[in-house]
Design goal:
This protein is an all-alpha fold. The chain has helices at about 1-30, 30-70, 75-100, 100-105, 110-115, 120-145, 150-170, 175-180, 185-200. The protein is built from 9 helices and no strands.
């Protein structure tokens, strides 16, 4: 029973890390300068994402706790509160970081030209992090209901769209690095929509663990 519950979570993380790895493989095909920009942005992105992971863990735990108490009617209320709080905290952080891009980027790079060329991607991940603050909480809530298989299917569908977009941008159209990094906004938007749709269906109320 434990394996049945945890295996989809493992597969979900494998898919996510695999897609992240391929993202940089495809970017390398565009050029070394674009890859260098992406490495700086990746390090900065990790800093921005860290507080979101904290809220998503809380969403997962609290949803599980409520369902264990059979308080199904409180699940959406709790998710909404967590998302609002997440948006306030992450929004305030992003606002500050958006005002000091050169300082933040200089933490992970010393090349002035590289830093200047990273500004556009930097603002793209600022916006993507706000979408992440909503979507990751919703996906964690799906997992928290015990519907780990559904969360895996959402991740699989999401990554399929993500990889198609990156492949077309990098290898077919050979777009700018900024257009490629817009994939993050697409990724989190699709995830949020799918997770919200599943939660609204209410099938998770009938899951027995």
């Amino acid at each position: 029973r434990i394996i049945n519950l945890s295996l989809p979570v493992m597969m979900q993380n494998v898919l996510s890390m695999g897609a992240w790895f391929l993202f940089f493989v495809f970017i390398e095909k565009i050029g070394r300068h674009e890859l260098a920009i992406s490495n700086i942005i990746r390090a900065t992105y990790m800093i921005m994402m860290t507080p979101v992971f904290g809220f998503s863990s809380a969403a997962n735990s609290m949803v599980s706790n409520l369902i264990g108490q059979k308080r199904y009617e409180d699940v959406f209320v709790t998710i909404t509160k967590i998302i609002r709080l997440s948006l306030v905290v992450i929004g305030a952080m992003i606002l500050v970081l958006a005002l000091i891009p050169k300082f933040v980027l200089a933490l992970t790079a010393s090349d002035a030209k590289l830093i200047d060329d990273s500004f556009a991607c930097y603002y793209i991940i600022c916006g993507s992090t706000l979408i992440l603050a909503i979507s990751l909480n919703l996906l964690s809530a799906v997992s928290g209901t015990g519907a780990t298989r559904a969360a895996m299917y959402i991740e699989f569908f999401n990554i399929a769209i993500y990889m198609i977009y990156i492949y077309v941008c990098c290898l077919v159209l050979k777009t700018s690095i900024e257009v490629v990094w817009l994939s993050e906004a697409l990724y989190w938007s699709v995830m949020g929509i799918c997770s919200f749709a599943y939660l609204k269906l209410g099938k998770w109320k009938h899951i027995r663990i």
